[in-house]
User: What shape does this take?
Amino acid sequence: MPPEYIEPIPRADLHLKGKREQTKAQNREMILEAARRVFAELGYGAATVRDIIRTTPLASGTFYNYFRSKEEVFQAIQDESALRIRPRLHEERAKAQSIEEFISGTFRTFFEFVANDEANFRAIHRNTDTLRVRMDTAEIIAGFQELREDLETAIAKGLLPPVDADFLMAALIGVAFELAERMLRREFADTNATAEFATALFMGGIRALPNVPSLAPPANA
Amino acid sequence: MPPEYIEPIPRADLHLKGKREQTKAQNREMILEAARRVFAELGYGAATVRDIIRTTPLASGTFYNYFRSKEEVFQAIQDESALRIRPRLHEERAKAQSIEEFISGTFRTFFEFVANDEANFRAIHRNTDTLRVRMDTAEIIAGFQELREDLETAIAKGLLPPVDADFLMAALIGVAFELAERMLRREFADTNATAEFATALFMGGIRALPNVPSLAPPANA
Amino acid sequence: MPPEYIEPIPRADLHLKGKREQTKAQNREMILEAARRVFAELGYGAATVRDIIRTTPLASGTFYNYFRSKEEVFQAIQDESALRIRPRLHEERAKAQSIEEFISGTFRTFFEFVANDEANFRAIHRNTDTLRVRMDTAEIIAGFQELREDLETAIAKGLLPPVDADFLMAALIGVAFELAERMLRREFADTNATAEFATALFMGGIRALPNVPSLAPPANA
Amino acid sequence: MPPEYIEPIPRADLHLKGKREQTKAQNREMILEAARRVFAELGYGAATVRDIIRTTPLASGTFYNYFRSKEEVFQAIQDESALRIRPRLHEERAKAQSIEEFISGTFRTFFEFVANDEANFRAIHRNTDTLRVRMDTAEIIAGFQELREDLETAIAKGLLPPVDADFLMAALIGVAFELAERMLRREFADTNATAEFATALFMGGIRALPNVPSLAPPANA
DNA sequence: GATGAATGAGAATTCATTCAT
DNA sequence: TATGAATGAATTCTCATTCAT
Assistant: This one.
């Protein structure tokens, strides 16, 4: 039931390093890729390290030369994703000249990332045992926190009315993940349409929000 | 680390049955309660049947007189919750005379339920192993589907503009769960404020949504 | 997979006792009958007490009013069989006027018993887990021992030549059980033909046996 | 109560393989040997995988690197025995020029095998829980079938009179196992005497058997 | 006596991780 | 560094037996 082994695609960007280095990097990537597929298919709980390495030409012991534990490889997947998307999202929002750009830039970037990185998204967000999973690594929490800070900055700059930034962040995230999920279930993942839907919702909604500051404790999200 | 055993509260509503019956009902409830606490604390993946039964004065074998597996007890918790809230939500939406009543009724009912039923909500929605969990039992999927159908009915009645009901459902659910989570983290769970926030967001937002029917396959949500 | 409950046949011979007594005897017989069928189908190892009482209208606790353990009920089945057949076999051999009567009486009686009491025979002799089982209760060992003594008596009386009685007993028993098994597998259990085969074999064979006394320790079989 | 761990005898025939291979082969043999002893002492039903592994310096999980279950190791023991003796028996019978050679060759080979391989024989044939066990693996059934076919061939060649080959096979097997059992209980296992006894019995007996073909279904034994 | 739920020791098995080669 | 067998703690689950009703 776990995915079969698939011959690794040689990566052009590995050419320059020494052979040793190269193999090491390749093995690491192999394991990550295998883990992504296995987690996506079986879910974190049900997946075993053996499932992962079985999808690989490597031996089980080799796994531990690259990752200290099953959890570490899971976190690596998450962080890799979060690390790649966080700066993009932040940049998008930083350069926003209007609330519209802020919102639509966030959603567009997110949905495009999800569509192009479906395996990662699924590995993190999906789970078999009848359960769906969401993430909580340091990287991701930091990403949430950053969004909230960006919202507060936008309020300070007068770009946004003084709404509850904590709740607004939550609403943005809830909508982003839930719509992403729905989008991926459709025949054709129309990132534009999805982003437009979400943007319209928030553009219309934000104006109507009660103008009160957040009641959440400011420091820890 | 799993919660300690806590003396069960004697229930007045058990007076009428025979002692045998009463003990059975109590034991079942004991196990459910223990499971709720253990899932909330450790998450579904990390929790073991032993953790659950240890939180109880019962013997390990007794668990299996009531539930066939960890999964079954988890589903029982989910279904119990969903079974209790689904009719309330549906009723609220059915009697709505306006879009405002539809949206605000839904959120208000949901946040009140969550606040009063925190243990259940946490057992289902939270998860430690670095993961958070969301629900996918038949009952809950049915609840989602029902919301979508209620939205479609509202569109047909002209209560709502002809928006993508599948996406709107997803947005409502994403916001509901994510705000609930945030609400519970605050010192005082202000269900009114939370419902107002969510309602305002959608009341403003819905008007702005693109007027197109859902692109999702209509039958299976 | 274990046999279904079958309404008990009321036994005429229970009429005379008091109602209490009667029920007790009936329950005992019910359990024995159920055990016979369950052991025959699943084998002693795989059969559980629950399997047995499930085949009965009784409750699990009731089992222990009649038998102290699973083993005890198994022994009761064995002893019941052995107790019923032993005197018949012994009598048959005691009244034998010739070696022919001795041998043929033994086999005929045994095969008829087996054919009429197939459930008992199977309960004792068969076993699923891929295994076949033979019996070793006190009653049965006593039966083997009795056969050996009867052989020795026959030798003393000059009915039989002075052969190794221990080995002859073993040969008789081996042939008896193995042929019984084969006989029951055939479409029609022809006890006469089977007895004739076995008798002919031994009638011819005994004459040819080396005339030496048994080398086995005489006391314990 | 299960046997204690006994230091393994270093095998000369393992010299050539690599250390890894060697250890693997040794461990497998260790487990088999332990299983033989445990089955012989406790019987198949009562023996547990834990009993087997405890008799070994290995860890419990290691058992499952070699055998999938208790049943599998039991079958391995049986098949190992059957695999070793079957060709010898068949060969013995094939080269028989007379009925005497056929019968005596069979018994002599069998009793010698049993005496030299007592642990295996006991592991398979003995059983405590009040039960004795006989074997039914594919290998062994095939061995029985082969005996029957050899008998039929002998009949066709005129070596044997046209008797019921199925019953004759059963009688040979019953006598072989039952005498083997008795033989092992004696102070000194005299395979010659035992084989002579059995041979004499059948040599005399076969001549007396009714001359009819088998009534058993020919295909499956 | 009958009932059937509770008990808890113990079985089989899994699997993350270690470690000798 | 790669290998893959060994490890053994931990888990799920069964079931003979007990015991309150």
Summary: The domain at 77-208 of chain B is CATH 1.10.357.10 (Tetracycline Repressor; domain 2). Residues 11-15, 127-135 of chain B have pLDDT under 50 and may be disordered. Residues 20, 23-24, 27, 58-62, 65 of chain B lie near DNA strand E (CB under 10 Å from a C1'). The two ends of chain B are 39 Å apart (CA to CA).
